Amino acid sequence: MANKGPSYGLSRQVQDKINSKYDPELELILVEWITRQCGSGVGRPEQGKMEFQAWLKDGCVLSELINSLFPCDKPVKKIQNSCMAFKQMEQISQFLTAAEKYGVTKTDMFQTVDLWEGKDLAAVQRTLSALGSLAVTKDEGTYHGDPNWFFRKSQENKREFSEDQMKAGKNVIGLQMGSNKGASQEGMSYGRQRQIL
What we know:
Low-confidence stretches: none
Mean pLDDT: 81
């Protein structure tokens, strides 16, 4: 954590709400996946939020992870273990750039300070889950883990219709349009008629 004092009032409430989104069960799945994906060289943290953050904080584990998902032409060229803050943040930033290149959307990405300062570790979990889902969906043979850990993203299901099918479809009244099957409002009266003077 950075050298920052405790928060009070509204800041404390906001931080508590962010912290409540962290999922310890998802942490176990992510740790298991990362160790299977990268091998035993990345180690395994003790269970807990702070240990999870400390394990990923320098960016080396994340860089190993993203490199293992690319079959060739690894996106993070140099993975260097450094104790200097700006080097660690640069390594995390390289991971984020490579994850975006892999296909993770910007809305699923965490920011460097979310991990490095431990501000929003739930966002880190969301990014890693999105990365796992993409790896399962792409099915390039680079994913090493249980496919049931992450959901498979929906795929395009393009349909081709013949000209006869298209013409037949024009004769069908869709349920969204409604149908009164020839009924009319003739003879309907609701209440007293309006008196115009």
